[in-house]
TrEMBL record:
It comes from Kitasatospora cheerisanensis KCTC 2395. Keywords: Coiled coil. Residues 84-129 form the AbiEi antitoxin N-terminal domain. Pfam families: AbiEi_4 (PF13338). This is AbiEi antitoxin N-terminal domain-containing protein. It comes from the Bacteria. Residues 21-48 form a coiled coil. The keyword Coiled coil applies.
Amino acid sequence: MNVTELLRLLQAEHDETAARADYLREQIERLTGALAEVEARLAEIVTTGKVIDGLTLPDHEPAPAETATVYQQIVTAFNEHPGQVFRVRDLHELLGLPADEPSINLTRSRLGRLVRQGLLDQPGRGRYQKRT
């Protein structure tokens, strides 16, 4: 087998692998978009449940609220304040989350994911707001 044939085989394998990578990237993009839509809808449902619980008459015992995930709490906060720009620490204060550094970093990571999913914008370093 000569060098030319080895290079041709290597190029063929490269092309197949690159095509597979492109296909997987497209799948990830579709799934990421679908996940963002479902998470936003879930946050809307949680918010609706809270509104309905707030409208119950005093003589009725309100249904126990399920604990929302932190992602749901974050999305709900941005939905309730669509024009506001939040810093991570401000968001923690609003949501009553711990203000220790590991918690702040975890929320920063979550916000980055929501930006990549298209739910939030990052108008400046360390600032986040609902995408309009």
